[in-house]
Design a protein that fits this description.
Layout (H helix, E strand, L loop, with lengths): L3 H12 L3 E6 L6 H7 L2 H4 L4 E4 L9 H11 L4 E3 L13 E7 L10 H13 L2 E9 L7 H6 L9 H13 L4 E5 L10 H10 L4 E4 L5 H10 L3 E4 L1 H5 L4 H5 L6
Parallel strand pairs: 1-2, 1-8, 2-3, 3-4, 4-5, 5-6, 6-7, 7-8
């Protein structure tokens, strides 16, 4: 089984190098948008790209991956909203288990139905404990999954959930306030999770400025994910991160 990208993430964690991922929603990213987003100036600040969406309406993940491949050679990681978002043009996939909810389909059901397709794809599989956190507004992810997000003012619940995920053998914890969140994941919650787990931690949702990026890194996030802000203005990336301090 390939472990190249996960090994790199682990090595960066051990050395203290923080990473930035950009989330690309195929519904909102045509080739013109991608050309601006993945300009030479922007690419120097990005470590990897996450591709996927909670509910694809008009976008096509295969077309999006193909367009991205023409523009850059960054690692492409599928962040699947459903079992049909599997494509061998990517390098890896976050195999999500929604451990913040109790929807059996998203804990094991979807995984069984997609297991053979994943095996044949040759993708590097990174098993991920996916945890929705209250971001101040109902998100598409919460609606589609039929689950309630974790309260953002009870870090202990999140910490124990993440610890249980690690004990189950998951490779990664993803704390997500969701696309369009009004609030990002609080630093206190990130810190609580970081204190309980040794595996890498990813944080996304509601991150729109340098301060929130640096706060997430400082609190213990190994990878910070930004998406909506770049959908609205793909040209802000360089100005947003050019002076950001990587702890």
């Amino acid at each position: 089984m390939k472990r190249e990208l996960y090994h790199r993430i682990q090595q960066n964690r051990k050395s203290g190098k923080k990473m930035l991922a950009v989330l690309i929603d195929p519904d909102k990213s045509d080739k013109a948008h991608l050309s601006v987003l993945l300009s030479r100036e922007n690419l120097q600040h990005i470590d990897m790209l996450f591709i996927g969406g909670s509910l694809l309406v008009s976008g096509n993940i295969r077309t999006t991956l193909s367009d991205i491949r023409e523009l850059c050679d960054l690692p492409l990681v599928i962040f699947p909203g459903d079992a049909d978002q599997i494509d061998d043009q990517a390098d890896a996939i976050l195999l999500l288990s929604l451990i913040s909810g109790r929807n059996a389909e998203l804990l094991i059901g979807k995984h069984v139905s997609s297991a053979m397709k994943l095996k044949r794809s040759g993708l590097e599989i990174i098993s991920t404990g996916y945890m929705l956190v209250n971001g101040g507004v109902e998100t598409t992810a919460s609606y589609v999954t039929g689950t309630n997000p974790l309260p953002n003012n009870k870090p202990g619940i999140a910490a124990l959930t993440a610890l249980a995920g690690q004990q189950l053998g998951l490779n990664l914890i993803y704390l997500d306030a969701g696309s369009g969140a009004l609030q990002s994941v609080p630093s206190s919650l990130i810190k609580a999770v970081r204190q309980q787990v040794e595996i890498p931690v990813v944080v996304g949702g509601g991150i729109r400025n340098k301060k929130s990026i640096e706060e997430a890194w400082s609190a213990g996030a190994d990878i910070v994910v930004i998406g909506n802000a770049l959908e609205e203005d793909p040209q802000i990336l360089t100005s947003l991160f050019s002076s950001a301090v990587r702890f």
